[in-house]
Amino acid sequence: MSLSFCLLLLVCAQQPATGGRWVLQRSVPSMDAIQAAAADDRHLYAVNDHQVAQHDRATGKLVRMSTGKAEHLNSAWPHAGGFLLAHSNYPNKPDTSDIRRLDPATMRLELFHTFQNPPGSLTWVVRHQDAWWCHFAHYKADNGRSLVIRFDDTWTEKARWTYPVDLVKDWDGMSLSGMVVHQGHWLGTPHTAKKLYRLEFPGGADKARWLGERPAPFTGQGIAPDPVTGGLVGIDRKLRQILLATWVEGSSP
User: Fold this and answer.
1) All structural domains of the chain
2) Would you state the torsion angle of the CA atoms of residues 89, 91, 93, 95, taken in this order, to the nearest 10 degrees?
3) Which residues 6+ apart lie within 8 Å of 204 measured at CB?
4) For residue 92, what are the contacts with CB-CB under 8 A and spacing of at least 6?
5) What's the pLDDT score for residue 8?
6) Quick one: pLDDT band at residue 18, thresholds 50, 70, 90?
7) 139-154 pLDDT per residue, tens
8) Which residues make Cβ contacts (< 8 Å) with residue 136, sequence separation at least 6?
């Protein structure tokens, strides 16, 4: 097991419920930092609507852009040596949603899974506890219809959750843009605000629990684990930057 993989597991298991804060450690300019960011040992990635930019991790220099057609990309999740990106036809209707896989070696985007009659626009996918967790967004007047579905390995639905009314109101007509897991809690990002929601998806219930929120340097959008620092990677959309942040113990947010 590689050191980077061990650190990736560590970030998903060691954030305490209280007594710490997210601190910005580095910013890397990228004109493609619009939808989300991701990271691996050698590179940082910025996601725009249609492509993914690969940057040298040490220098920040743009290495190359992804190939393969895409209409509206969202969050990227590390999986099996590559990345899985949420993809939809947003803002068009009726909704279509699928998952695209990015191979870092070739920077080719390819279809990984298609959702038949999806219940919204896919904004993130997370692999957790041997299951696929997918968020389907609805906007404005339909905001409250946004939901998370847990699928098994055959993509059979096993559970679904909608969100508390107060949390939906906090989205200001948008939705939940990104997600990671820390110590059994889910940390999600809004569309633009600099904070992370702390959530739970309890078994036997049909409503997620909003446990609180913490300040974060990211201006919403998609986030991902950073296997090198053990922290998170996200973006500042306005400044067009990839942001790397780590969890610092001992001070309340």
Assistant:
1) 3-249 (2.115.10)
2) 50
3) none
4) none
5) 45
6) low
7) 999 999 999 999 999 9
8) 95, 97, 118, 119, 120, 121, 122, 123, 146, 147, 148, 149
**Cα radius of gyration (the chain):** 17
What's the pTM value of the predicted model, to 2 decimals? 0.91
- Measure the CA–CA gap between 187 and 133, rounded to whole angstroms: 13
pLDDT above 90: residue 185: no
pLDDT at 80 exceeding the cut of 60: yes
Dihedral angle, C-alpha 56, 21, 191, 110, nearest 10 °: 40
Sheet of strand 72-79: strand arrangement = 72-79, 82-88, 97-103, 108-115
Whether residue 158 contacts residue 131, with contact meaning beta carbons closer than 8 Å, is answered with yes
In which band, very low, low, confident or very high, does the pLDDT at 182 lie, cut at 50, 70 and 90?
confident
Q: What separation in angstroms does the CA of 11 have from each of 125, 210, 250?
A: 18, 21, 17
Output the CA–CA distances (angstroms, integers) from residue 144 to 92, 175, 200, 213, 225, in the order listed: 19, 9, 17, 19, 28
DSSP reduced 3-state for 6 = helix
